[in-house]
Amino acid sequence: MHTEAVQDGGLHACSVCPVGGLFRNGVCQMNEALSTSDSVGQKKSVEQGVRDFVQQPHIGNASQLLAGGVAGAVSKTCTAPLARLTILFQVEGMQNNGAKLSRPSIMREAYRIAVEEGFTAFWKGNGVTIVHRLPYSSISFYAYEKYKKSLLHMYNMENSSENIVAGMGTRLLAGGAAGITAASLTYPLDLVRTRLAAQKNEKYYRGILHTLRTITRDEGAMGLYKGMGATLLGVGPNIAINFCVYETLKSTWTEQRSEVPGVWSSLAFGSIAGIASSTATFPLDLVRRRIQMKGAGGRTSIYEMGILRTFVHIWKAEGWRGFYRGILPEYLKVVPSVGIVFMTYEFMKSRLTSHGS
């Protein structure tokens, strides 16, 4: 079996075990499970789990990028209607007529979209979402693995995964850096997606290229990066929490059960990770949407630019509840969305591994 131990400073560790996963107290937990199995059937089951676990991470860079991109595109398409509802609720408070905002109602807004805009309007902006998510998710997953590997090597922790705190810290740092990297490289497409999804009956923006040209004409080239500061502040911790929670749950499952979690377990772990990350970072996500919409449709900005001033405006006009306007459809979206991302990613990795072997 491909589970030979490696020597490092007197410690023995399985060469394929991830941080926070199977290595503990100088013993490879998979090998220990094999040695203590009291039945042939149980031993074969554990051996198969080890083989699956060893095979999955070993895919090439191109395959890893492809797996991440497909995972993001599938997830966003499945949850596009709820994503659009979230955006509409988030930007609803951007009005200067002092009118009292109605309480967000998913059913009422969904009915309005179906009647006034048609059923396909639930996927308005999904084309640019896919164009954005393919590189965004690819970069996120790829960069996460690279950053994590670099951090482990930098701090000499490849064989010290018994330190749970260090393992979680590594995941948080790698996830945050990966999220910031992906968001920085694909930001204009995220802005275009928000502008298209926030349109109701008006057709000021028509398609990706037209929106890019119109924003550049109306707001200048820097208009394509409007709200990027708030986005990076939010996406860093969001992706960090996603990866940290997911991988911690996954490694805990693998350690306790001596088997690799299946696609449904990956879906559940991803859903929990999505709830945790959205709850922690939703106010920043709302602020970035507001900033992205300033000057949209050729209209003048309602309040001053900047993250802090936007926070102050929302607090004064809507109270603390304003920061969580649209959180319900966000929860309904993020449970399947993040779950599908990780489930699809794990499935794609296993498929690409089997085809490559």
TrEMBL record:
Gene Ontology annotations of biological process type: transmembrane transport
Coiled-coil regions, chain positions: none
Organism ancestry: Eukaryota, Viridiplantae, Streptophyta, Embryophyta, Tracheophyta
Keyword tRNA processing: no
Bilayer disposition of the protein: Multi-pass membrane protein
Any Pfam family the entry gives: Mito_carr
Keywords per UniProt: Calcium, Membrane, Metal-binding, Mitochondrion, Mitochondrion inner membrane, Repeat, Transmembrane, Transmembrane helix, Transport
Main subcellular location: mitochondrion
Name of the featured protein: Mitochondrial carrier protein
